[in-house]
Automatic annotation (TrEMBL):
Residues reported to bind heme: 474
Required co-factors: heme
Keyword list, A-Z: Heme, Iron, Metal-binding, Monooxygenase, Oxidoreductase
Molecular function in Gene Ontology: heme binding; iron ion binding; monooxygenase activity; oxidoreductase activity, acting on paired donors, with incorporation or reduction of molecular oxygen
Protein name: Cytochrome P450
InterPro entries per UniProt: Cyt_P450, Cyt_P450_CS, Cyt_P450_E_grp-I, Cyt_P450_sf, Cytochrome_P450_monoxygenase
Record field: transmembrane: none
Homology family: Belongs to the cytochrome P450 family.
Pfam families to which the protein is assigned, alphabetical: p450 (PF00067)
Domain of life: Eukaryota
SUPFAM superfamilies: Cytochrome P450
Keyword Oxidoreductase part of the UniProt annotation: yes
Organism of derivation: Rhodotorula toruloides (strain NP11) (Yeast)
Length: 549
């Protein structure tokens, strides 16, 4: 046979050989993952056991993380393999192991997709660098500063209330408002006040004039998808990797997608607002030194004073990244929780009546007055137990909070996991397990927090992982609790709320009702999408003046 004939034959069969090679590689990859991987014995969906990595990506695309993962745990028990190398766990004993202070489990590179050109508290992976950054930025989150932050929440709340009043006038005594949007505008404006030197003016305008909402939504979509897509994921395992930093190739789809989905308006508005705010604040501080005036006290005033571990001051870019990450971490989460708390209260007439009795008594006795102080709102014990129960049943972040098993390996809930294995817990799934909160976990029952003994309360507090747990626990927890404790009692005191009926002419609803546990039901006032955040869409509420406020 001549050389030309050999080449002819080879090219004829090249496509076939290539196809067979790909098929054989995929088959051996799947066989290895299903039967020989160290996680081969952990049950889970077929695609995860075959190592195809598509199960988590599907959750990111289908917005059904919470209930799909809960289904898997109902079917398979306390440990579920959700991807080639990740196991979701729901055993209470592992919280302290995986997330504890001073522990060795680090965040997985999933979080690196939350990073801009510099790491933030949320996206930094290695524990040592995180501890240094947390120390540098913690003055922006102290309890003593919290009191100063209250007046900024009050001013945003005044702007929000004006929208409700306008809707009531327009509706001749009964307004209909998009509570989903209203709560988001408020939460964003509050972050503007706290971390960007002033409100974004969204509540005043009554709408998202800057395009922030679609921007944040697209950003989280891309983070979840890239973070779970194996072809983008595996090359970025190193601790300092980042889509927009050390791996610009991986950042390109992110930026392209954001621009395609929302245009550049949101990111640009945010970038120019943050750099102007930082420059203005540095100028103010300089002037304050000269004139002896006290500069405005907020989170930004603390961030501009932050120092790196070597004593050098934070660069302007570091301050901007810290402020922007506060917007990403603190606005959606707080808005989701405020919407859910109002939902759980209004949905049950007995709960609504009890909350109102408590608030009315507090106003009558002089415990509360407008503007409501956080320290007074914390004394509303029934309201506070409603808040706890909301944090349990509708945690703003239902996604798994994944960590890497350290080089020593780890025994978790009686099974050994090899170094490098990823282990995770979803607050949504865990909070609904009987091993975490007893037999009636699916029921909204605020009384569970009031009836519990001190010992039982301690266990429930430990099992409540809405804000994460241990060394990477949410640093903004108290800020959001302060905001919620001021806003909700004020709105409940001023207005009477009911869900806008879905089956009526001119109903504003556009999506089918879907509860946080995935149940499709037309009685639901909203449509929940469960991804990194459990966001409520299409949430319409009728609002009337209460009269005696
Ligand atoms: C109800 C409201 C909130 C919820 C449910 C929530 C939830 C969480 C969770 C679950 C984490 C841990 C993520 C993980 O371990 O993977 C976290 C971290 C974080 N949160 Fe929040 N958050 C809320 C409000 C806020 C607010 C208002 C701010 C800022 C003012 C904020 C800033 C942060 C930051 C900076 C981190 C990273 C902390 C670190 O790793 O040191 N959060 N949050």
């Amino acid at each position: 046979m001549s050389l030309a004939q050999v080449l002819d034959l080879a090219s004829e069969h090249l496509a076939l050989s290539l196809g067979l090679t790909v098929l054989a590689s995929l088959a051996s990859w799947a066989v290895y993952n299903a039967f020989f991987s160290p996680l081969a014995d952990v049950p889970g969906p077929l695609s995860a056991r075959l190592g195809l990595g598509s199960w988590m990506s599907n959750r990111a695309l289908s917005y059904d993380m919470g209930w799909k993962l809960a289904e898997q745990h109902d079917k398979h028990g306390a440990a579920v393999r959700v991807s080639r190398n990740m196991v979701s766990l729901v055993d209470p004993s592992v919280i302290g192991e995986i997330y504890r202070y001073g522990g060795k489990f680090e965040k997985t590179s999933f979080y690196s997709y939350f990073r801009a050109d510099k790491p933030s508290l949320m996206s930094i992976l290695d524990n040592h660098s995180h501890a240094l950054m947390r120390r540098a930025e913690s003055p922006a989150y102290t309890m003593t500063l919290l009191v100063d932050l209250e007046e900024h929440v009050d001013s945003c709340l005044d702007d929000l209330v004006a929208n409700f009043d306008k809707a009531i006038v327009a509706g001749k005594g009964k307004g209909t408002v998009d509570m989903g949007e209203m709560m988001q505008l408020l939460a964003m404006d509050v972050i503007g006040e706290l971390a960007f030197g002033g409100t974004f003016g969204l509540c005043k305008a009554g709408k998202d004039t800057q395009g922030f909402l679609p921007m944040l939504e697209a950003f989280v979509d891309v983070c979840c998808l890239c973070g779970e897509c194996s072809f983008l994921y595996y090359p970025s395992q190193s601790a300092d990797s980042s889509c927009a930093g050390t791996q610009p190739w991986a950042g390109l789809p992110l930026i392209a997608f954001c621009n395609w989905k929302v245009g550049a308006q949101g990111p640009q508005a945010l970038a120019s607002k943050s750099s102007k705010a930082v420059k203005d604040r540095l100028e103010q501080i300089k002037k304050a030194y000269e004139t002896g005036d006290e500069p405005r006290r907020d989170m930004l005033s603390k961030l501009v004073m932050a120092k790196n571990a070597d004593g050098s001051p934070y660069s302007i870019r570091q301050i901007e990244v810290a402020a922007s990450s506060i917007l990403g971490a603190g606005s959606d989460t707080t808005a989701v929780t405020m919407r859910a708390l109002l939902y759980f209260i209004v949905r049950d007439p007995a709960v609504y009546a009890k909350v109102m009795r408590e608030i009315e008594n507090a106003f009558d006795s002089g415990l509360l007055s407008l503007p409501i102080k956080y320290s007074d709102g914390t004394k509303l014990s029934y309201f506070q137990s409603c808040l706890k129960e909301t944090l349990r049943l509708h945690p703003a972040v239902p996604w798994t909070l994944p960590r890497v098993v350290p080089k020593e390996g780890a025994v978790l809930a009686g099974r050994y996991y090899a170094p490098g294995t990823q282990v995770a817990m979803s607050p949504f799934v865990f909070h609904r397990r009987t091993e975490a909160f007893g037999p009636d976990t699916a029921v909204f029952r605020p009384e569970r927090w009031l009836e519990a003994t001190e010992e039982e309360k301690k266990v429930m507090e430990r099992n409540l992982i809405t804000f994460g747990s241990g060394s990477r626990v949410c640093i903004g927890k108290n800020i959001s609790l302060m905001e919620i404790t001021k806003v909700l009692p004020t709105l409940l005191w001023k207005y009477r709320f009911s869900f806008t009926p879905r089956n009526q002419p001119n109903s504003p609803h556009k999506l089918p009702g879907r509860a946080v546990d995935g149940t499709l039901d037309d009685k639901e006032p909203w449509h929940v999408k469960s991804q990194w955040f459990a966001v409520q869409h299409d949430y319409w509420v009728d609002v009337e003046e209460r009269g005696d406020s």
